[in-house]
């Protein structure tokens, strides 16, 4: 075992010991027992990561990038194991602690085997078709593997380090530090102080700086080649989600006020959702094609003239966003119409009697009431823009021009299956996308979900 | 109403799938049931469901046909996978039916796939389950990878046809035509002295010009790059000039053609023909010259880029719509381009691909695909596959295939047959690709490169070209980057395949 690995293990054990020790002490337990448990969690967490990697990042000629990635992965494993340990301790404390009111909820099936038995069919299917392939993705990501090849080879974490190259320009470092300062400052301010009022007055600016800093941090993580993919994905997804929700809500509000022929209207608005993403791509290619496109044919006869729809970076992205919006808008409209119907009319009437304008009614009654729908749509639209735009891109732009629409999912299929046929690199990229989706969803639950009011 | 029909169609489809999976008795039963169901559906079908019903009825007929075929005797099945899904697939299926009638001891079953890449993946996956078809249709860029591909037991996926023929001049009465194959194709597919696969659809890249536009501008059909640039200047100066002068798909095949035309190699070890290629020359002098010429045409507004890589249809449409005066394209569509141009009100003239006057004319490459024989077949099945391959490319079939598409007549007797019939007198465009291949020097440069991971390397080349066309950039610099990436793709490949 290399000295570096040993040092990593010791550091992780120490970190885990301190963290869990302090946690246990805070909860009136024995800090020594906590420290021992924490040390074990830290060491095992990073140990498992390097056991799976075969400690390849500590081999002599591995290069700095992979070595650092190995350290990072080890620490990440240790953090995950330590957090799991505190969660277990917390749960244990709850069920055994004095004054616990938690009894078994709902019906009881008696012995421990029956529920397991009942769960088995589901777990079998999930395990076979979901978890096992998912685990295999991790294995594949460390290999050079190809369909039809007589053998495969280990490439350690090269497939990841090729995508990563953390470096930030000085000005973005300044903004990131500023944002961290703001977050810490806000956290340290007592909630009832005068200073807190000042904080909330600049709430929007505060959020803006934090968002900008988060983006700058993410943008700086990637290598020169992969950063284009990250940016294309971020820009395209951002517009699909934001415009999709805004336009969907706008149309839903308008449609809600229609009484005559409402069903017909709704059906007409929703049907593009039944079109597959690939067909949407074909339709918009017919409209916006460079040579034989209908739009340019019409524009050619006006003072505006033909536009480089698929040969300019910004135009091509706009057309892609437009076609994706057209395809997915029906879904958003449908849910918003349903949501708006659930807003109690008594609240609206009360507000109107109090002299609220229709904008105020919308802003302060309707919008908060449909927040759960918005939250739900935020996540489904994000998933749509990340994964389901593949067909549209393939028919419309093929990831071009010059990589402008080469989003993460498109890149995965190109690298992993269609062009490079490199299953390892494809797997590594899909794990990056997987991590991004998890991170964004967790972030949404943490921030947006707080403002969601499920009880009207 | 609609929902009702959809439900029934779905049921019907499920039945047909079940029928396909069962034995012959079950097939007949299920097919009967399915036919009944189809009758019912047809009764209350609306226009909306019409297509689905048609498909279903076809499928039922197929199922019934299969069932009867099986019932008729012990014909040996020969599965043939073809990477076409259009009229070229229909033509192939018609030939297979003809073959089955001539040689009832065999039953050739043709299955179409959407693209070369799809078929390649499907074949490798089928091989993993020991279920690969007897004959597989792979494109030229996959040659190295097909030669390297293995079945689960470690044996090669394919067997060189010349080895399977073992010197025979006929197989059960079907004359062997492998020795008659035109030399350009024979050279491409002869590796280590062995003819590996049976050439079928073979093309070359040629140039089509709008004769009326050239005449209006008072220029001859260009022969060199400089001629093209000069012709474009003249055409674009016309009062009724087209939107742009020239276009061609951003496909690496044209890049490879131009490297060969300049007599340069694309890969090490004599284009991968002396030994496995371990380096590529994507940034060679010829490559930089070609991209620079292209870049100048683009910057001058003579070339129009449709915005997507490998865009065959967009460039085709631009030429037919008379948005451009010249089109570099595959000869595979010669018949269609000639007919469509007449329908569109002009005459298309086909000529050789323009070449770099500074490097001289060395010769163009073939493109297209060949039929590969699966390794490890039973002797009788292998003979059936060989019979079909050779019969399929007999002079009459090869000539008909050429007339249908524009792929070159694959054997010399087929060329002779067409010449004797006077076909070329009426269709001079159809002769150009064959002549261009004949005009090539016989060198490793014009034989074409065999490279592992070629498809990915091709995509690197089209990617940097697109970067140049869209965002500008220095061709030499872009190609140097492409070369580095290509080398890395090749070395990854060789780690997995090289001995």
How does this structure look, described?
The complex is a heterodimer of chains A (456) and B (499). With 456 residues, chain A is an all-alpha fold. Chain A has 19 helices and 2 strands. Chain A starts with a helix and ends in a 5-residue tail after the last helix. Chain B is an alpha+beta fold and 499 residues long. Chain B is built from 23 helices and 14 strands. In chain B, strands 1, 2, 3, 4, 9 and 14 form a 6-stranded mixed beta sheet that branches. Chain B has a 4-stranded mixed beta sheet with strand order 11-12-10-13. Chain B has a two-stranded antiparallel ribbon with strand order 5-6. In chain B, helix 2 runs antiparallel to helix 3 and helix 22 packs antiparallel against helix 23. About 8% of the residues of chain B have low confidence. At the A-B interface, helix 18 of A face helix 5, helix 14, helix 22 and helix 23 of B.
In round numbers, the mean pLDDT of chain A is: 88
Gyration radius of chain A (Cα, Å) is: 27 Å
Report helical residue fraction of chain A: over 70%
Structural class label of chain A:
mainly alpha
Radius of gyration of chain B: 25 Å
Number of strands of chain B: 14
The structure class of chain B reads: alpha+beta
How are strands sequenced across the largest beta sheet of chain A? Answer: 1-2
* Biggest sheet details of chain A: 2 strands, antiparallel
For the sheet with most strands of chain B, the description reads:
6 strands, mixed
Give the number of helices of chain B: 23
| CA-based shape of chain A | globular
The percentage helix of chain B is 40-55%
Q: What amount of the residues of chain B lies in strands?
A: 5-15%
Element pattern of chain A in H and E: HHHHEEHHHHHHHHHHHHHHH
């Amino acid at each position: 075992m290399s000295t570096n690995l040993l040092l990593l293990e010791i550091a992780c054990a120490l970190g885990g010991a301190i963290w869990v020790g302090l946690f246990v002490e805070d909860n009136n337990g024995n800090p020594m027992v906590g420290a021992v448990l924490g040390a074990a969690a830290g060491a095992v967490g990073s140990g498992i990561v390097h056991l799976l990697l075969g400690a390849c990042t500590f081999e002599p000629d591995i290069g700095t990038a992979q070595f650092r990635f190995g350290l990072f992965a080890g620490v990440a494993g240790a953090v995950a194991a330590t957090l799991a340990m505190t969660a277990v301790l917390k749960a244990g404390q709850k069920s055994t602690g004095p004054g616990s009111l938690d009894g078994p909820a709902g019906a009881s099936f008696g012995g421990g085997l029956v529920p397991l038995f009942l769960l088995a069919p589901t777990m079998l299917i999930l395990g076979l078709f979901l978890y096992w392939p998912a685990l295999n993705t991790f294995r594949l990501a460390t290999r050079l593997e190809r369909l039809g090849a007589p053998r495969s080879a280990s490439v350690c974490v090269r497939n990841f380090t090729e995508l990563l190259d953390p470096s930030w320009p000085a000005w973005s470092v300044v903004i990131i530090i500023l944002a961290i300062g703001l977050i810490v400052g806000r956290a340290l301010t007592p909630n009832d102080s005068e200073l807190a009022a000042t904080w909330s007055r600049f709430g929007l600016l505060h959020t803006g700086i934090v968002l900008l800093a988060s983006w700058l941090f993410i943008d700086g993580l990637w290598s020169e080649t992969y950063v284009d993919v990250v940016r294309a994905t971020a820009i395209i997804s951002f517009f699909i989600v934001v415009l999709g929700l805004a336009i969907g809500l706008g149309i839903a509000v308008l449609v809600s006020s229609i009484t005559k022929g409402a069903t017909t209207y709704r059906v007409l608005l929703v049907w593009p959702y039944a079109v597959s993403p690939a067909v949407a791509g074909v339709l918009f290619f017919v409209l916006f094609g460079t040579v034989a496109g209908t739009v340019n044919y019409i524009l050619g006869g006006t003072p505006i003239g033909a536009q480089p729809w698929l040969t300019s970076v910004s135009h091509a992205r706009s057309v892609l966003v437009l076609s994706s919006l057209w395809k997915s808008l029906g879904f958003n409209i449908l849910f918003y119409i349903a949501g708006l119907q659930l807003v109690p009319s008594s609240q609206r009437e009360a507000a109107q009697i109090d002299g609220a304008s229709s904008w105020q009614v919308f802003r302060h009654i309707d919008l908060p009431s449909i927040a759960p729908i918005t939250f739900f749509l935020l996540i489904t639209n994000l998933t749509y823009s990340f994964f389901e735009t593949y067909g549209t891109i393939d028919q419309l732009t093929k990831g071009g021009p010059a990589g402008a629409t080469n989003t993460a999912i498109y890149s995965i299929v190109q690298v992993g299956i269609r062009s490079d046929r490199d299953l390892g690199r494809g797997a590594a990229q899909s794990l990056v996308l997987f991590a991004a989706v998890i991170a964004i969803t967790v972030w949404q639950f943490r921030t947006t979900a707080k403002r969601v009011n499920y009880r009207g | 109403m609609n929902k009702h029909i959809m439900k029934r169609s779905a049921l019907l489809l499920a039945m047909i799938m079940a029928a396909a999976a069962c034995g012959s008795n079950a097939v007949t039963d299920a097919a009967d049931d399915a036919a009944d169901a189809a009758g019912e559906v047809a009764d209350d079908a609306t226009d909306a469901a019409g297509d689905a019903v048609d498909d279903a009825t076809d499928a039922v007929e197929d199922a019934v046909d299969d069932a009867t075929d099986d019932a008729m005797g012990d014909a040996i099945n020969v599965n043939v996978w073809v990477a076409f899904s259009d009229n070229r697939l229909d033509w192939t299926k018609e030939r297979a039916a003809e073959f089955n009638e001539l040689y009832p001891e065999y039953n050739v079953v043709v299955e179409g796939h959407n693209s070369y890449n799809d078929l390649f993946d499907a074949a490798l996956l089928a091989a993993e389950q020991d279920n690969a078809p007897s004959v597989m249709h792979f494109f030229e860029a996959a040659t190295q990878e097909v030669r390297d591909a293995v079945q689960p037991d470690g044996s090669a996926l394919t067997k060189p046809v010349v080895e399977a023929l073992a010197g025979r001049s006929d197989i059960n009465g079907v004359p062997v035509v492998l020795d008659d194959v035109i030399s350009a194709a024979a050279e491409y597919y002869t590796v280590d002295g062995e003819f590996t696969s049976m050439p079928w659809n073979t093309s070359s890249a040629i140039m089509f010009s709008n004769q009326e536009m050239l005449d209006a501008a008072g220029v001859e059909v260009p022969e060199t790059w400089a001629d093209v640039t000069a012709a474009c200047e003249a055409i674009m100066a016309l009062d009724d000039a087209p939107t742009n002068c020239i276009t061609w798909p951003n496909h690496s095949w044209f890049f490879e053609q131009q490297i060969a035309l300049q007599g340069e190699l694309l890969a090490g070890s004599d284009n991968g023909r002396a030994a496995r290629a371990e380096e590529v020359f994507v940034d060679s002098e010829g490559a930089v010259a070609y991209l620079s010429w292209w870049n100048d045409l683009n910057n001058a507004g003579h070339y129009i880029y449709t915005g997507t890589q490998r865009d065959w249809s967009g460039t085709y449409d631009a030429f037919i719509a008379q948005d451009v005066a010249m089109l570099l394209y595959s000869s595979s569509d010669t018949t269609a381009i000639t007919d469509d141009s007449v329908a569109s009100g002009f005459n298309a003239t086909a000529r050789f691909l323009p070449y770099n006057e500074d490097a001289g004319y060395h010769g163009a490459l073939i493109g297209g695909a060949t039929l590969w024989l699966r390794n490890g077949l039973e002797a009788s099945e292998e003979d059936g596959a060989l019979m079909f391959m050779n019969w399929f490319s007999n002079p009459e079939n090869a000539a008909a295939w050429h007339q249908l598409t524009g792929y070159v007549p694959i054997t010399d007797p087929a060329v002779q047959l067409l010449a004797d019939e006077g076909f070329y007198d009426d269709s001079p465009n159809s002769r150009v690709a064959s002549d261009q291949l004949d005009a090539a020097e016989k060198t490793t440069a014009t034989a074409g490169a065999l490279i592992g991971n070629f498809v990915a390397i091709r995509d690197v080349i089209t990617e940097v070209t697109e970067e140049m066309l869209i965002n500008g950039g220095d061709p030499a610099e872009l190609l140097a980057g492409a070369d580095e990436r290509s080398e890395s793709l090749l070395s990854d490949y060789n780690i997995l395949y090289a001995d």
